[in-house]
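Example with several molecule types.
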Amino acid sequence: AQSVTQLGSHVSVSEGALVLLRCNYSSSVPPYLFWYVQYPNQGLQLLLKYTTGATLVKGINGFEAEFKKSETSFHLTKPSAHMSDAAEYFCAVSEGAGNQFYFGTGTSLTVIP
Amino acid sequence: GAVVSQHPSWVICKSGTSVKIECRSLDFQATTMFWYRQFPKQSLMLMATSNEGSKATYEQGVEKDKFLINHASLTLSTLTVTSAHPEDSSFYICSARGAGGIGELFFGEGSRLTVL
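Resulting structure tokens for the full complex:
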């Protein structure tokens, strides 16, 4: 069975500071991993994804994530937070193309000016 | 990326009425679409998987007679909340799986339902 754990339902950072959102997963097979962002009253937008190959994945808006198999983690980072990054972030895992997605409970990011 | 559109974005209805929400894949064909419900400050709860030309598969605890899903074409799935009550008020989001590739999910903008 698959599951996704996002540590910290709320994260606050100062503008310009490092953003680190944590995601750990469990999967019986090599997973596909995703990060989505949700702005208020909107759907989810794909930030980045890992399927195979390079473990450091770069996404939109300056975000990146690193797949660490030994730690079963896929943490999301951004070197310098911007006010516009304030949103809800969801980590998701799938056991491969065509399989069901499992979402974490989400992390709300607040950026303090 | 692929575009999924939902309509309406906001809907307010009286208790006892039915509301239909549409989910369209605008630039690709989606054999499978998913319907989620999201409560404030919470994650997405998968309600059902909608397959084109066949009956939807509902998750445990979701009333299929309450939440009617129709996926009549490769670009359109509809969710009808029948005899809506205030407890059905929520944010409903659809997603569609892209064809080929890794089958990643593309999400609609969401539909906020308020039942008075």
